[in-house]
Amino acid sequence: QVQLVESGGGLVQAGGSLRLSCAASESIFSLTSMGWYRRAPGKQRELVAAITRGGSSNYADSVKGRFTISRDNAKNTVYLQMNNLKPEDTAVYYCNLYPYPRPWGPGTQVTVSS
Asked: What is the pLDDT of residue 27?
């Protein structure tokens, strides 16, 4: 079973930046697309960004131009660089396989203060 461990969240002021990391336990990582998802308080989990094994990416409209997803297949790790953060980006962020996620990890909390 794939284990996913997210890290890098924290408290940041609006306009600030954070870089999230996600380490996967298996080499299957290099064979599949990966995604970053988030769940804001009172809302359903949503896809933020996804990246194919070849490096092609797509983003939710709300984060285009501010977030960048990348991956290092040799390290089984996917990253999310988040710039110009807004209070509405406050959420628990998760990484998982895309588009068919496995059981969810604990996620990492991102809180953006205004």
From this structure: 66
Report residue 58 as tokens.
Answer: 């797509």
Q: How far, in Å, CA of 81 to CA of 83, rounded?
A: 7
Q: In what order do the strands lie in the sheet with 91-98?
A: 10-13, 108-113, 91-98, 33-39, 46-51, 57-59
Sheet containing 4-7: order of strands: 4-7, 18-24, 77-82, 67-72
The answer to whether 19 touches 79, Cβ cutoff 8 Å, is yes
Instruction: Confirm if 1 and 104 have CB atoms less than 8 A apart.
Output: no
CB 95 within 8 A of CB 34: yes
| C-beta of residue 97 within 8 angstroms of C-beta of residue 4 | no
Q: What is the DSSP letter of 26?
A: S
Mean per-residue pLDDT pooled into runs of 10, the chain (114 residues)? 90 98 81 94 96 95 98 92 98 95 93 97
Q: Which tokens in the block code for residue 28? A: 């299957």
